[in-house]
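Note to self: user wants both folds in one dump. Writing first protein now.
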Amino acid sequence: MPLTEYEQLRLTGEHWRISVLGEHLLRYEWSPRGVFEDRPTQVVTARPWAPVRAQVRREPGAAQVITAAFQLDYDGTEPAPSSLRVRGRGTYQSEWRYGLPLPNLFGPALGLASNLGGTARTLDGADGPIDMGEGLATRNGLSVLDDSASCVVDGERLLPREPGAVDLYVFVHGADHAGAVEDLYRIAGRPPLIPRWAFGNWWSRYHAYTQGEYERLMDRFADEGIPFSVAVIDMDWHVTDVDPATGHGWTGYTWNRELFDDPAGFLAGLHGRGLRVTLNVHPADGIRAHEDCYPAVCEALGRDPSGGLPVEFDLSDPAFRRAYFEQVHHPLEDMGVDFWWIDWQQGEVGPDGVDPLWRLNQLHTADMAARGRRPLILSRYAGPGSHRFPVGFSGDTVATWASLAFQPRFTATAANIGYGMWSHDIGGHIFGVHDDELATRWLQFGVFSPFNRLHSTDDPFAGKEPWNYGAPAREVMTRFLRMRHALVPYLYTEWAAGAPLVRPVYHEWGDRPESYEALDEYLLGRALLVAPLTRPRDEASQTAAARVWLPPGTWVDVLTGIVHRGDRFLTMRRGLDAIPVLARAGSIVPLAVGASTENPDELELLVVPGADGAYELVEDDGALEPATARTRIEWDDGARTLTVHPAVGATGAIPAGRHWRVRFVGVGGSARGEG
């Protein structure tokens, strides 16, 4: 039977429906009542059709669908191993049957061997590897996303599914793991465009700063030429000494005037220093009588404030949700708070059975967009679909080598479920000892991770200020923190490109068995391969080592200029001043000159000769719906010519009279020009 072109391919029986959403993606539904769901869910926001070429066979109550990627066989009865089967075609002759007792994949009675992992809700207290769950990348090329338990989104309401209903998405992408993630984004939404300044350095510490102490610290960073773009204020910004009868001091929304005597002036001062500000909140205890906002919240809810009864935290109540934002958070945002760090304590199941973490992430993200701001929060992962709610807070990190050694793999593997946005406690938060080498290696990883948020506990030996360490570590830390701000044009462009910012190498080289062994290195954007050093150095050589697989081609370490032949494993050793950061021949990496995270007046183009290459730099005006400018840059290796084309689009977003530098790595040489 020949393949037929379908604009939309859907088959329906009395209790089942099969929707072929693309060559590699299908949806299977079972409804005891014969009622199928077209509304969005917590995970799936849309189900766009893509043209598909397929063979379709229909028999009474049954169906077979064959595409270039898969064959589905279904007998029309209640889903069971004998009734529902999907087989991969081509190179990956894999097979999945519903209900087989394999490791679960997002739901009951589902699973596939060789799943390459996804991510976890948190790394709280993790001192080494933890279970990362399962994602869409598998060695057998087939995976299943079970959306049966996810609530239906009906306006502001979250509605439970029909009891006994089954709602599955089968991804059959073979070794094209990036394609599986792209199909996930097609049905579950793309990560939103976040503010450019979020890609700079973040300063955070669990410490009861006074207003003056914090301001002096930021001024010292500036005096030392150490750039930061985000100031994180942990929970001591608010009153913590509360009546135990009403709960504990973790929850709070009222400035502690003993520490911050002029909150509005404090926030304005940080903004004047070029910093954006986030405050830590633990929402679990609701709104209590000592809060400044308590009378307004009571009025909004029609309650009498004179009794002093706490307003319970309940996001299932629409009236509470409105008061939570309009009376509690919006006044603080109007004062100058740029976004929120949504911390722990609200549990995993709310009064309506919905995870409050998911609700908080979704509501805060939507509220920011409704107020004309680009969505940005700092919060834990709440399951598949959480890539729509950046940025991910990985929890209280243990300050040990074992903890650091796991973080690169954990960060990259999350891309298998589309979550390329982890922010770790760089340097470690709890336990551990003061260790110059560990702190430096962790910071180097942070600089080449999605978000670089330095953090520590309230311990005088744990502070992450570079001057707290010996001269060699201090110099390296300072240089790498400056390097992070130089990377902002590249990081922002790569985020805007739409793929997870950090990915395992098998997302690009999934047809190479070696890529599945190279789990402690990762791709940062499209141009850079990073292999963090996560173990102590050898005392004899004073270097640390990483075993690195280089994919085929010629690679150049952009920090050292060393040229490597690819298609092999090799051991790379570096002193404290570097880690392996490699780019393929033909790569072009745009770097900012200066500390600002704004569109820079001067750019340096890092060019890796050896092959032709091109790059399109993306910049915009920072608006929620941005006006975007694109600058195409081309390297002709044979002619040894670099061309910077005139920007197109919203060129007003680009500084007039921009200056350009060029730096060639692997061959030496530099140039300077204007464009």
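First done. Writing the second protein, which came from a different request thread.
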Amino acid sequence: MTPYIKNHVVVERRGRKIGIIGVLLRQFSAPIGQVIMEDELEAVNREAEILTDMGIDIIIVLSHIGYTSDIQLAQRVSPTVDIIVGGHSHTLLYNGETPNGDTALGEYPTVVTQANGHTIPIVQASCYTRYLGNIKFFINDQGVVERWVGEPVFLGTSIVQDPTIMELLEPWREEVDAVGKEVLGTSKVTLNRSWCSSGECNLGSWACDGFLEEMIFRAKGTAWNDVHVCMINTGGLRVQINPGDVTTEALLMAMPFENYVQVYDLKGKYLLEALEFSVGVSWSQSFSSGRMLQIGGMRNVYNASQPVGSRVTATIRCIDCDVPRYLPLDVDATYRVITQNYIGDGGGGYTVLSDNRENLEVLDVDYELLQKYMRRQGVVVKDLDGRIQIVY
């Protein structure tokens, strides 16, 4: 990747050279192969020193490590760094009342004062182009930020879309609309994702049920399904599906990452480890975790009163039986598992899956399976059936 990715770039504006350093989180959520991730602070300081030695006295850090980490970085980074432009945490910073009632988590910019008195302003402007960052810094001849002016711009209906860009998009819009507006079926209920990180959510349950139903057609011998259990990571479920006609566009908005579906064998001990990892944080009165897995083909109880590593009681639905029923998870048994490739390949910290799976098969993209499922269903009414229970 070295020829394509630079640690820093230098741009020139109005006769002044400006150094820009890029930084990502050291802990990647997805596997990154042979890429070596350095400590963020050490890497930024090294690049800042290089730029300073080049005679550059205006240094901006373009960050994707999150608002809290940006503040921590600003407290300890080299005083040659002038500004941090942040991302990753989707944080809205704003001064005063926001134009549409959104909650701001800090001032724009948030100013961090180091022990030596050097100040570093931090800016971030929410996500998904809901706001446009808008700030002007005034920097003196010594490269010191003296003042600033600006505020994020809310991109509501009052902002007129650029006619030239809209014209350029038109040929693609017609083709995309033809696919995206296809009605796959109807949902009588909201397929909600807001609870997915704290327990069962019917969007995740519906998706897992769809994956499992697709595997019925692959069943062998006397078995009625080819797969025992489904697991979907909460982070892959982005928005809810509203009642009414469900289109391909709505489905893609709910699951936008186009992960491939994987099927593989997994020992019960490793399946239990994955479930334990999903709630492996410390919690007692309330629970919420981006690790949380939505499930199908099993029923799990997570008990906060038990020590970490012993919090999960799982039952697995039999697939080679006349009457499907749930039996206690057997750590010595081998189960057939269906997931998306994100966690199957170890993303989100789920290396217990990637390191121990066997007989891997890669199927279609996730939304393609769910398109077929929705068409077969026609009408969706998905409830909360108690497959996940949190006990305090």
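Dump finished. Worth passing along: The CA atoms of residues 57 and 141 lie 9 Å apart.
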